[in-house]
Amino acid sequence: MTSNAGQVHFSVLHRITHAEYHAAITFHAAIMFEPLFDDRYLDALVERGSIRSYPKNVLLIQEGDRSDQLYVVISGRLKVFLSDSSGKEIVIDTVVPRQCFGEMALDGEPRSASVMTSERSELAVIERDEFRTFLSSNPDAAHALIVALIRRARNLTRTIGSLALLDVYGRVARLLLDSAVEENGVLVIGERLKQQEIAKRVGASRETVSRILADLREGGYISTEDNQIIVHRRLPKRW
Questions:
Q1: CA 217/CA 214 separation, integer angstroms
Q2: Residues 6+ positions from 167 with CB-CB distance below 8 Å
Q3: DSSP 8-state class, residue 109
Q4: Contact 236, 176 (CB under 8 A)
Q5: Which residues pair with 141 in a beta bridge?
Q6: Which of 21, 104, 151, 239 could disulfide-link to 10, CB 3.0 to 4.6 Å?
């Protein structure tokens, strides 16, 4: 990576290819999975569910299957992903405590993605009829769900635009910034984003992601501390 007249030029310019676009267009960025409910509604949902524990690598939801459950994560970590017949995966998101998933069970249609535990997890499992009853008796919660789904639809439009218009570096940079929160004046990505996970989310190879992150570290834009990525300054527009 070199600098010239205040502009940053990276070693390789990796534009999105036709194959990468079609491989990645089916995934939703992590920002798609903002919380559906605040704590008061989550607590009320947990009270209506059955508490169950699952070890690592348990497939809770299979893409294409029909199921009737909504899940609230009490502890642990899960991945939401798409896969093809060859076993290739695209990770849509990681679900952590105080988040829920499976709300699309409301329409009774086949599941649009798979969900698997990434570590031992404790979940509250709510049946669809119980979820419907909860929404009917809590109109404010139903309104919150509608608003959250509208935001997800808006973010999906943004994600598709990113896939179509941004190169791989642009998608990596957007994922880093969307995943970061401000702590003591700096941006911190607290979740454990491994290179392979980033690659799956943006529809690129792990090697390309590795080169991008290495160049960003070399340029002083990011650093890794205690399994966290620290963003020290504005990321360059191009790689």
A1: 5
A2: 13, 14, 15, 16, 238, 239
A3: P
A4: no
A5: none
A6: 239
What fold characterizes domain 2-16+167-231?
Arc Repressor Mutant, subunit A (1.10.10)
From the list 229, 236, 115, the residue with the least C-alpha distance to 167 is 236
The amino acid at residue 239 is: W
Residues 6+ apart with CB under 8 A from 34: 148, 151, 152, 155
Contact assessment for residue 201 and residue 27, using Cβ atoms and an 8 Å cutoff: yes
**pLDDT given for residue 164 in this prediction:** 65
The tokens describing 8, both together, are 């940053």
Taking only the tens place, the pLDDT of each residue in 26-36 is 334 444 456 78
Residue ranges per domain, the chain?
Answer: 2-16+167-231, 30-158
What's at 153, amino acid-wise?
A
Query: Is residue 225 helix, strand or coil?
Result: strand
> Are the C-beta atoms of residues 204 and 212 closer than 8 Å to each other?
no
Tell me the two tokens of residue 160.
Answer: 């598709």
Q: Could you tell me what percent of the chain has a pLDDT over 90?
A: 42
Are the CB atoms for 59 and 114 separated by under 8 Å? Answer: yes
Q: How many CB atoms lie within 10 A of CB 86?
A: 5
Give the pairing of strands 181-183 and 186-189. Answer: antiparallel
Buried/exposed code over 199-222 (b: 16+ C-beta within 10 A; e: otherwise): bbbbbbeeebbebbbebbeebebb
pLDDT tens profile 108-166: 899 989 999 999 999 999 999 999 999 999 999 999 999 988 887 887 777 677 666 67
> Hey, what amino acid is at 236?
P
